[in-house]
């Protein structure tokens, strides 16, 4: 084997043999990055990533999943998720070639924080257009967000649903099921919506029966004066 051949542990975006000392160094640094991630040495991984992202030879935008992975395993939980959200919002603007995948990650992390309204707003902005409208995961997220918001203040223990959001949730989940028939999550929540709607109808029927029973009570006859 030629002494000019270099062996690297991981394949980078440019798999060709590096021809300069600088490119060899960058490939070695990329190996350090990937190895550090696998060994869960995130401080070293973060330092390697910080150097690589500043190098003009590295298409760091195309490696956005690596940056997200490092952010996801750094800092405290709430701060970590918030950092990931801001990072993904930035990548949505800077790397439109992979916006569909970035949107999925963004909405997922918003849902983890319980920010269902923000998640639904993001989805409603993109879902009407191609290729987002044919993505079953995005429709599933939209359905789950709508279903959660349709239930109002759950802590109040009052059974009251927003009929418009409930209808939207059902529409999104049914569309997701059409796009991916093997998605068991959509079927589970569609059954849940049917159960909730049935329970609401039963409560309404009981309320109507009570009203009828009250209306059927004969009025008291007035006593005649003598």
From TrEMBL:
Highest rank taxon of the organism? Eukaryota
**Gene3D superfamilies in the cross-refs:** Tetratricopeptide repeat domain
One Gene Ontology BP term is: nucleolar large rRNA transcription by RNA polymerase I
GO MF, one example: TBP-class protein binding
Q: Where is the signal peptide?
A: none
Q: May I have one GO cellular component term?
A: RNA polymerase I core factor complex
Residue ranges with Acidic residues bias: 203-213
Disordered: annotated segments: 199-226
Q: What is this protein called?
A: Uncharacterized protein
Provenance organism: Pholiota conissans
């Amino acid at each position: 084997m030629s002494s000019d051949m270099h062996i690297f542990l991981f394949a980078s975006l440019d798999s060709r043999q590096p021809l300069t000392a600088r490119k060899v160094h960058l490939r070695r640094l990329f190996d350090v990055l990937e190895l550090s991630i696998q060994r869960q040495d995130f401080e070293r991984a973060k330092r390697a990533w910080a150097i690589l992202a500043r190098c003009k030879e590295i298409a760091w935008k195309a490696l956005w999943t690596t940056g997200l992975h490092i952010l996801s395993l750094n800092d405290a939980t709430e701060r970590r998720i918030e950092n990931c959200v801001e990072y993904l919002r930035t990548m949505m603007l800077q790397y439109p070639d992979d916006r569909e995948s970035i949107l999925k990650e963004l909405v997922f992390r918003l849902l983890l924080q319980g920010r269902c309204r923000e998640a639904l707003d993001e989805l409603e902005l993109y879902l009407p257009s191609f290729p987002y409208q044919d993505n079953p995961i995005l429709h599933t997220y939209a359905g789950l967000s709508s279903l959660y918001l349709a239930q109002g203040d759950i802590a109040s223990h009052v059974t009251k649903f927003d009929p418009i959001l409930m209808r939207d949730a059902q529409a999104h989940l049914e569309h997701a099921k059409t796009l991916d028939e093997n998605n068991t999550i959509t079927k589970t929540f569609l059954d849940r919506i049917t159960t909730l709607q049935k329970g609401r109808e039963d409560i309404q029927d009981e309320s109507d029966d009570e009203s009828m029973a009250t209306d059927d009570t004969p009025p008291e006859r007035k006593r005649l004066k003598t």
